Amino acid sequence: MNDIKQLKQKSLEQIRADILNTNICPDLAKTAKQIVFGDGNPDASVVFIGEAPGKREDEQGIPFVGASGKLLSEFLESIGIDRSQVYITNIVKYRPPDNRDPSDQEKQEFLPFLYAQLKTIEPSVVVTLGRHSTNCFLPDLQISNIHGQLTEVSIGGLVNMKLQIFPMYHPAVAIYNQNRRAELQEDFNKLRAILTN
Ligand code: URA
Q1: Ligand 1 geometric centre to CA of 3 (Å)
Q2: Looking at domain 3-196, which of 3.30.70.260, 3.30.70.890, 3.40.630.30, 3.40.470.10 is its CATH number?
Q3: All residues at 6 or more sequence positions from 157 whose CB lies less than 8 Å from its CB, including other chains
Q4: Which residues contact 72 (CB under 8 A, 6 or more apart)?
């Protein structure tokens, strides 16, 4: 690992420790097996953000290792990217019981830590997977209208950063829906073009 990667890795480990030490979402922390913080390259040029861990992720402590994760890896491979090159995380870092949707409050509680992850990694593109993740950055917009479009978002306050957000459908919708799968593939192809420009 080069020096920058090592520094970024250390900073990410500190953010993970901060979540545990500040007792974020204690009810979720109690029902989940463990924190699912994030996985991949701490110096990645693309970060993928899902919604919350599911059963498999909760068991392994790694995001997107179940059925959606398998699809995500396949889409990445289809554009010549190995999963280890990117960074993958979720807004909410604990599995909600019975895979229910994360609440607005849970998303809000985790948001500063997600911002801290992004501030550390400094990716050129942030891919938000699904409406929960997308609406944290682009509130009130419909994913069906904005997927596959790169949009600059400014985060104010102490964080003070600009992000290039690229919304996509959540890979879970492509498991049984062939139309959505084709749309996701198109968006991945667009992402490849953005990254190679
Ligand atoms: N769905 C998500 O949004 N995140 C995961 O980690 C797994 C499935």
Answers
A1: 30
A2: 3.40.470.10
A3: none
A4: 48, 64, 83, 88, 129, 171
Tell me the whole-structure pTM to 2 decimals. Answer: 0.97
Q: Which residues line ligand 1 (CB under 6 A)?
A: 50-54, 57, 63-64, 66, 68, 90
Encode pLDDT of 141-162 as tens digits. 999 999 999 999 999 999 999 9
How do the domains of the chain map onto residue ranges? 3-196
Asked if residue 27 lies in contact with residue 42, where contact means CB atoms within 8 angstroms, the answer is no
Q: Which atom of ligand 1 is nearest to the CA of 88?
A: 6
Give the contacts of 18 (CB within 8 A, at least 6 positions apart).
Answer: 113, 116
Nearest CA to ligand 1 atom 7: 64
Pocket test for ligand 1, best of 90, 114, 132, 136 (most atoms within 8 A of CB): 90
3-state secondary structure of 139: coil
